[in-house]
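Before we proceed, please read the two lines closing this message. Let me know whether the structure tokens fit the sequence:

…
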Amino acid sequence: MTPAIVVARQVVREAARRRLLLALILLTIVVIALTVWGVSRIDDLRNAGQPLPDPQKKTIVSQLLILVMFMFSWVLSLAAVFIAAPAISGELESGIALALLARPMSRAEYVAGKWLGLVALVIAYGVTAAIIELVAVQIVSGYLPPHPVEFLGFVIGEGVVILTFALMLSTRLAGMVGGVIAAILFGIAWMGGIVGGVGAAFNNATITHVATATKLILPTDGLWRGAVWSLEPSLVIAAQSGLGPAVAANPFFAAEPPPAAYVVWAVMWIVAMLALAVWSFRSREV
């Protein structure tokens, strides 16, 4: 077994010991139960005394699901931040990292192991919670988003991006400082997407370019837009697209997925940030 895998297993065990995943799962179950109850009450709505037509019902369910998944993506991303931010700095302060590095293990293997363990936690929680939510909504309402697999890819990618960034900060900064910085930049990136939509609506190239730069510096909002597109039914996309460029400012709507080049950029960004984390940890004294 390679040293990186040993460190990854230690990360997963530590999360289990602290019952972090258990707490997230229990909270997620509460949210899913509330979502299912809310979706089940949609049948009680009436339009001039008649049951809602299927297209109208599908629209309501899809928008409710997007709102719930928006909260889910924030929980997933912020949980990733505050797990990754002290992952290295905390062990340096406690001396655990020194004990591990005294073994035949390179610093690159140590950082890679931390990253693999954290990514495994994000995937395990994200995929399980999202699938349960989607299946529960489908059972109650009969609605399944048009691109559920793509949704999982985009929302997990969003979590991995911010996780990798927080882990890189952990090689130099204390856990609380790194976590706050990553969380604030995550929020700024999300607001940058809205600002970019406003710039497009008013045909302001400067604002649009600033928002584009934000999406490239931290590609979380661009991936979130892909997740929204994955959940939008075609009838909603057709209706919203007719409103003109102003609809781009809506963070809960995306008429199309991010370009393939942007997805490639997000993957390259993750690899580059992980390489930066390895270099940063190698070059510091411990």
Residues 3-282 form one domain. The mean pLDDT is 84.
